[in-house]
Amino acid sequence: MLGLFLVPAGSLLAQDQSVQVIELIAKKYEYSPSPVHIKAGTKVQLKINAVDHDHGFKIAAVPDGAHASSKPGLVFAAPQDCRLLKKGETTTIEFLAQTPGTYSFKCCHSCGLGHRGMKSQIIVD
Ligand SMILES: [Cu+2]
Q1: Ligand 1 mean position to 105 CA, how many Å?
Q2: Rounded to two decimals, what is the model's pTM?
Q3: Ligand 1 centroid vs 16 CA: distance in angstroms?
Q4: 3-state secondary structure at position 118
Q5: Is 95 in contact with 44 (CB distance < 8 Å)?
Q6: Residue 14: inside a domain, yes or no?
Q7: By the number of CB atoms within 10 A of the CB, which of 5, 57, 98, 119 ranks highest?
Q8: How far is ligand 1, taken at its centre, from the CA of residue 36, in Å?
Q9: Each residue of 82-105: b (16+ CB within 10 Å) or e?
């Protein structure tokens, strides 16, 4: 299970903090760049472009190895489940990279034979 974390409306975006835009390509059967490195404390706008097929994006809000019910290290403005990445479109996902750790994500939309191996990580340093 993913740890879901709700913050009071507006609090994430109201902070006077610059946003780092990170562009990610999703294609059979990988994301690039991989892994993605982010400095702790950074507010991120992840712009994912699915170039060849519909894909998906599902990420754990707690770092690898942490219990699913522990405090999320990635703080999202809205609850996260599987985000569909439509072919040819850019999907934007915003979050605060709060706690150092490795956060695994994977494709959650069946996209072909290699689908199960389509995964990567965000590493918060
Ligand atoms: Cu897939």
Answers
A1: 11
A2: 0.84
A3: 36
A4: coil
A5: yes
A6: no
A7: 57
A8: 19
A9: ebebeeeeebebebbbbbebebeb
Block mean pLDDT (10 aa), the chain, length 125: 51 65 98 97 97 97 93 89 97 96 98 98 97
| Count of structural domains, the chain | 1
Question: 58: exposed, middle or buried (C-beta count within 10 Å: 0-12, 13-18, 19+)?
Answer: middle
CA of 11 to the centre of ligand 1 (A): 33
Is 46 among the domain residues? Answer: yes
Distance CA 42, CA 44 (A): 6
| Distance in Å, CA 111 to ligand 1 centroid | 4
pLDDT of residue 115: 98
